[in-house]
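seq:
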Amino acid sequence: MSARLPAVILMLFVFAATGLIATPRAAAGAQLAPGSIEFSPTVSFSHSNFKREGYGNVDTFTELNATPLVGFCISDHFEVNGGVLVRHQSSNGDSQTGFGATAGMTYNFSRQGSLIPFASVGFGSLFYDGFMLDNTAVLFPTISAGARVLVGSSASVNMSLGYQHESNANGEFNASANRLLASVGVSLFPWQKG
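struct:
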């Protein structure tokens, strides 16, 4: 059943883009009105195995990220957001967990039917050795663009592509990492104005 989820989300996106999903204009417009609150939980998981030719060992890598974000609409287009970051990584049995925070701004473009394109920029940090500056990764910049498909009057399905640069990657001094991010998620708007 989980294999069908991306196809269902893609169908929602296509239907909304072509206007086949009817959403009342007044109700949907209130989702991103000044003073509205957005809750957007995000969870990602990856696991991979790596085997070198001629060697018997297989390296395994696992990563779990959780980022619950809260946004506040300061206008019809601009939204500030912040949240908590949790990243658990495991490599060949050795694991570490980083806790941190993120903040940023999202620009929501004008609505096209049930579709609202958006672009966002942000920064954050992950602390791998408690809340001290040792083993701290800095996430800057984090840039993404995508679209929201409005669902009813209090939710949206979000799709985006982005880029993130991480200095002191995984808490290792002078290490860096560049990540391409593709995500599909949902947003809930429990408090709306307008």
